[in-house]
Every structure is written in structure tokens, then in C-alpha cells.
Design a protein that fits this description.
Layout (H helix, E strand, L loop, with lengths): L12 E4 L12 E3 L13 E4 L4 H4 L15
Antiparallel strand pairs: 1-2, 1-3
């Protein structure tokens, strides 16, 4: 079941990706590259990039993430 919250989609926000069905979120997530207030209240926000936003800003389509550390 979707767990929407009131956290805003600011630059560096980490949230659950989903299909059109609000209850379809699985293992995919996204990181906002800029403020995206049109997503507020429609997706489950669960984190914020704490350090390394400069690295996030360099990610390009097709890049592969080899390691992710979540604290």
C-alpha cells in the first residue's frame, strides 16, 4: 500500500518510483535533480542526499551504479 507523506520533493530528495497505480512501488527509486513540487503528496519520499550531491549531478542516462551506501 502506498505510504505518501508530506515531505517536499527538493533537490536531492530520494523517493519511491512507481507506475500509474499508486500501490505499484517496488524496488526502484529516484533522486530529484531539482525541486519537483508537482510530485509532492503523490510519491513516497524516504530520504535526502546527505553528501555527494555533486556526484548525483554528474549521473547521466545509461550510467550504472556499482555501489550504494545507505546509512
Amino acid at each position: 500500500k502506498a505510504e505518501f507523506n508530506s515531505h517536499p520533493h527538493l533537490k536531492g530528495t530520494v523517493a519511491m518510483a512507481r507506475a500509474a497505480d499508486p500501490d505499484s512501488a517496488g524496488s526502484q527509486f529516484y533522486i530529484c535533480l531539482d525541486t519537483a513540487s508537482f510530485l509532492d503528496g503523490k510519491y513516497t519520499v524516504f530520504g535526502q542526499v546527505a553528501e555527494g550531491q555533486d556526484v548525483v549531478d554528474k549521473i547521466r542516462r545509461g550510467d550504472k551504479m556499482l555501489k550504494v551506501y545507505i546509512k
